């Protein structure tokens, strides 16, 4: 089993040999041995923004919920209203502790009326599985399917066309946050129009033993570049997407993290007409919404040539009032960006903030929304 076939540097994914063959720089990450970069972080970042890139995200976990109580189980665990999903659709959400702290952010897929799949972050896999079983294990069958799948993300302005071409046009009608089944290089895959880069594309659920076949077919088009963890981070930061463990964790709640839109305190009734179950953390989040937050996660553009790294202090006079949670270069924008929690009184688009890092000060300006938005489709 892949999760237990350990290496000194971490578990290998089903695509480990492909990365080594391609000359990737490999590093330990969340218990896995993963590619940091191939041709270089900047070149890989630009490849995704300008054309298409492929990521091995097989370290993510897939946990299935099946049986008559599956909907009730996921509604109990997740803040978003899964009752609004129809077959073949997905949504972003979080799962919380009783006190509203975020256990993980994840995507839930409705594969059928009695079949849901939650994809969780690699570092949280074991914690999430235990949390799910504790709070909903009595409601349905919960099965960890992580060993069965490799997960490949193909992202960029040309990604959809390339993958759909390999699939013979079977994915041309898949909407955003939709699912479709297709055959690529003789392998049956499930394609989800989701991603973590700010670009369009697909995430492909592939049988683990066929991962190399599909990877080679996509890279073999000559139009898709392998992309490592380094560019994955700069891409998601430009899109202002939260990273668990940096921007959100069990000490933060969805409202202060700017994720209040995934919290539905009044959910769709169950199919039998009964009320949706209360979800874990609902009471605490309702109280937090009513009382208001004391701090907010804000986006920052850094003035000048400086780069703010995680841990840089936000100062108000001589007082430290917050810290940068994510920060780095934004190659597409030609500057640097960051995210940080700051007191609500200091938060607001256009307001300047002073940062202190290694004894030096930087000036930043708060901005609303993503730092980068992909151009509208033709």
Strand order of the largest sheet: 11-12-13-10-4-14
| C-alpha termini separation | 45 Å
What is the CATH topology of the largest domain?
Gyrase A, domain 2
- Unreliable stretches covering 5 or more consecutive residues: 1-6
**CATH hierarchy class name of the largest domain:** Alpha Beta
Strand content: 25-35%
The second-level CATH architecture of the largest domain is 2-Layer Sandwich
Taking all residues together, what is the mean pLDDT?
A: 96
What structural class should be given to the helix and strand makeup? alpha+beta
Q: Tell how many strands the DSSP assignment holds.
A: 20
Helix/strand order: EHEEHEEHEEEHEEHEEEHEHHEEEEEE
Question: Tell me about the biggest sheet?
Answer: 6 strands, mixed
Percent helix among the residues? 10-25%
Written account of the structure:
Helix 2 (41-50) crosses helix 7. The chain is 19% helix and 34% strand. The protein is globular, with a radius of gyration of 21 Å. It folds into three domains: 2-58 and 147-227, 2-Layer Sandwich (Gyrase A, domain 2), CATH 3.30.1360.120; 68-139 and 263-289, Aminomethyltransferase beta-barrel domains (Alpha-Beta Plaits, 2-Layer Sandwich); 295-367, Elongation Factor Tu (Ef-tu), domain 3 (Beta Barrel), CATH 2.40.30. Residues 1-6 have low confidence and may be disordered. With 378 residues, it is α+β, with helices and mostly antiparallel strands. The strands form four sheets. Strands 11-12-13-10-4-14 form a six-stranded mixed beta sheet. The chain contains eight helices and 20 strands. It has helices at 16-21, 41-50, 70-77, 125-136, 159-166, 211-219, 229-238, 282-291, and strands at 11-12, 25-29, 32-37, 53-56, 61-66, 89-96, 102-112, 115-120, 141-144, 149-155, 179-184, 187-192, 201-207, 225-226, 295-302, 313-316, 319-330, 335-343, 352-357, 360-367.
